[in-house]
Amino acid sequence: MAAAALSLVLLLLARVWAASMHSQFGPSAEYRTPNCDQYKLPGCPRDFNPVCGSDMSTYPNECTLCMKIREDSHDIKIIRSGPC
Length: 84
Description:
Elements: H1 2-25, E1 51-53, E2 58-59, H2 62-72, E3 78-81
Antiparallel strand pairs: 1-2, 1-3
């Protein structure tokens, strides 16, 4: 009986964890494309407004993410505002 209760608790915890990961990172359809046209590269402002890229790297701001996209020719989306 105790093993069944423990299994149920673990199953519920796994579901809660999965739901929190989904809400934090969401499906790729919710990723947004950075607006790189607004920045005059190669220079970026030094403001600290971190964004989490779809490459799971934290960038200090959207402009630095745009620099990475242009340097490496990768299609990196913004998962969310804030660090990864």
